[in-house]
Amino acid sequence: MNYLVTIGLEVHCQVKTQTKMFCSCPTSFGDEPNSNTCPVCMGLPGALPVLNKRAIEKTIVAGMMLGCTTPTISKWDRKNYFYPDMPKNYQISQLHAPLCDAGSVTLDVLHYPKDVQKQIKGEPRVIRLDHIHLEEDVAKSTHAEKRSLIDFNRAGTPLMEIVSMPDMETPEEAVAYLNALRQILVYGNISDADMEKGQMRCDVNVSLRPKGQQELGAKIELKNLNSISAVRRSLYYEIERQAEELDMGIEQVQSTRRWDDDLGETQLMRTKEDAHDYRYFPDPDLPPVETTALVESVKHEVPELPAAKRERFVEQFGMTDYDAAVLTAERPLADYFEAAAKGCKSGKKLANWVINELLGRINAEDLTIDQCPVTPEKFAALVAMIDEGKVSNNQGKEVFTVLWDAPGQEPAAIAKEKGFEQVSDTGAIEALVDEAINANPDKVAEIQGGNEKLVNWITGQVMKASKGKANPQVVTGMIREKLLG
């Protein structure tokens, strides 16, 4: 309570390309260790790098999606350090002239952890970006008790580093930032951003300072964060650790610490000063990139962003803000909904069915929307049948169950086979309505006396008499007309 917390994130995200950043080796995941290598990504003498144009283009598109500007000239630098995961003993990166400057990420309620979403009030927080630069990824190190194993398949993969300004104040904001950023990158097909596969990783910078002090405290960098939940847990631990030491008068020193997820604590790795520790200098093997033509050529690749799509869904389909946020959380789900909406008049009813029935089944079976066996067209046909009163809501759920297990069938055929087709013929329904009214004079008197809730009770009697086949909307309307005028 005595300190102000300041948090900034450096997010490393692999760019989705077929080949590596400076050579033609494939970037596929899960191949035999050390099978996707060549003299360039292994750092052998005399091997020269060649720029991956597609990686540069996708980084520029990412910058556009995040509101960044792209300088007309971008340059490459060598970041020198000695570690087994970088065989050249330097990493090709960008320090002085990155591909993207500034920009921002907006945090909406659903980006926050579920346990705090109800506490988020006011205008959405906007986290500023410092820059985005492009570099090459390092090899994957696996540390055993007495040895380390190195897989160079990942070495040289195009890697964006998205550096935020120190604008976050809580672990929950850091989680929301990562969720929002990942959503945008996946929307733009920039990256799959799968943290389990190492496609997205982050380093966290956190500092504490006494309330009222303008100058930021010593920056502590946290490494080895392989999940969004680990980011939240490590921040809670580190904030408490720094606060306890500051309370004891122990001055914090700029340093790098690793997060041990098993122990639930951070551990000192090394003290660190500034960028000059890496002895950056311009890479002599790579020319500067003129970006003007590239920027123009990729403008058409910028998709409708999640926030804009949410607003459009609310306006176009008449759904709630919450429903729109759920449906636009992932681009494949939004695409599925829009494809289905072409064959369904009621976007609001379709949204309810997608969220409650379709997503419920997908989550229960641990599938993705791309693995859904029911096509958008058939799902739309089912919802249209319900909306038009051809089947009831409960009957629709039964049709959906059959359709899920046998996706080759048609919803209408399933409904017919099960005898679910509802009767909308007013003559047949009127006879049942008259019978229910005549059999329940006491209920009719109460309805006409002002207890209109009993209309639903009379409707229920008609539905029983029709064995669920009468259209309940037609039934209710007819009862109201006969009893209430």
Automatic annotation (TrEMBL):
Its EC number is 6.3.5.-. It comes from the Bacteria. The keyword Transferase applies. GO terms for biological process: glutaminyl-tRNAGln biosynthesis via transamidation; translation. One of its GO terms (molecular function) is transferase activity. It is an enzyme of class 6 (ligase). It holds the Pfam family GatB_Yqey. The keyword Transcription regulation does not apply. Keywords: ATP-binding, Ligase, Nucleotide-binding, Protein biosynthesis, Transferase. Allows the formation of correctly charged Asn-tRNA(Asn) or Gln-tRNA(Gln) through the transamidation of misacylated Asp-tRNA(Asn) or Glu-tRNA(Gln) in organisms which lack either or both of asparaginyl-tRNA or glutaminyl-tRNA synthetases. The reaction takes place in the presence of glutamine and ATP through an activated phospho-Asp-tRNA(Asn) or phospho-Glu-tRNA(Gln). This is Aspartyl/glutamyl-tRNA(Asn/Gln) amidotransferase subunit B. It comes from Sulfuriroseicoccus oceanibius. The gene is gatB.
